[in-house]
Amino acid sequence: MSQAIVSFLYAYGAAGLVAALLFLLLGIDRVEPSARGAYAFRPLIVPGLVMLWPLVLWRWWQIVQGRGADMSVRRSFLARHAAAWKTLAVVLPIMLVAALALRQSGPYELPAVPIDQRAMSVESGR
User: Fold this and answer.
1) Which letter, b or e, does each residue of 17-31 get, where b requires 16 or more Cβ atoms within 10 Å of its Cβ?
2) Which of 22, 24, 47 is nearest to 36 (CA)?
């Protein structure tokens, strides 16, 4: 059973790699118009393409058939995306400052014990 799972994962990964290469060479410009000429980010999306290759191929097929999302849906998505980034730009620094302010202090009341003394006390059974 485990050999079958491993074989399936290898086949899925190989199919994903082929689909990712085809998509990066032929389809990314159709699916995402802003990707035209942007070649530096393409290797970065290969792992996601390999894992999600059935969805990528389905989306590519939808756009080739002319049933892709219209521009109003795309603009709506981009507006929500921009709002999420602006929210994160405010919330993440606040969370960082709060975490630093509320962190627990260490055991300053105990004297420092060198590692050698600690090891000797464990060996002697104390």
Assistant:
1) eebbebbbeebbeee
2) 24
